[in-house]
Amino acid sequence: MKVLVLNSGSSSIKYDLFDVATWNAIASGTLERIGAPDGRLVQRTRSPSGRIDEASRPAPVADHREGFARVLESLAASAALGRAGDLAGIGHRVVHGGPVFEEPTRVDATVVEAIREATSLAPLHNAANLMGIEEALERFPGVPQVAVFDTAFHRTLPPRAWRYALPAALCAEHGVRRYGFHGTSHHYVARRAAALLGRPLEALDLITLHLGNGASATAIQGGRSVDTSMGMTPLEGLVMGTRCGDLDPAIPLYLAR
């Protein structure tokens, strides 16, 4: 049996196909530049002997629906995924779980609607994540599907960390609070650090860093997130590839004048 993991982004679909028996990735890839004429699919497959083969080919697709079909065609052509019956489950990365989700959650109609409601908090990310979920549900209706939320790990933030200095009633009415992101990454890094140090995670105080085109820092105490640099949206915090991070709110007004 196999598990397919999907990260459906605004202009890409990243995926890994795992063998449940070993949890080795037997195929992985990225479909890039969805909606552009120079779209490309890069896929890596692992043979039973352990050899990794990489194939890159043009793959212009109009939208995520067509893109997901192209991914499945590529997996089938490489014999990595023969039929739906081979799948034990499908996992989806979702950026924003809003105030609802605290852990990985089995996807059903109620969960889909809750993700849709949180889209206003991360419109670029959640809308694309939801497209991947809906497409997978349509194609594999009998396969269990689970959403894993970037914000879930930070649901343990204490009030002093998640509150903003704004009227409490206003924040409550509109869901304004620090949610935090990159939670799956920070949780993984913390667990790996504990393993490499040879100490239980519950006994450690850590600062973890997620450094990429998006970047964030998190304070972890006893395995629980207690503070983080990203806020209500993924814009706050550290300087990133295409986001300036923390910025004096007077600067845009000053530059506009």
Description:
The protein has 257 residues and is α+β, with helices and mostly antiparallel strands. The protein folds into two domains: 2-149, Nucleotidyltransferase, domain 5 (2-Layer Sandwich), CATH 3.30.420.40; 156-228, no CATH class. Helix content is 28%, strand content 27%. It has helices spanning 64-77, 109-117, 123-139, 159-162, 168-174, 183-197, 250-256; strands at 2-8, 13-19, 25-32, 40-46, 52-58, 87-94, 105-106, 145-149, 205-211, 215-221, 224-228. The strands form two sheets. Strands 5-4-3-2-1-6-8-7 form an eight-stranded mixed β-sheet. Strands 9-10-11 form a three-stranded antiparallel β-sheet, with helices on one face. The longest helix is centred in the middle third of the chain and has 17 residues, at 123-139.
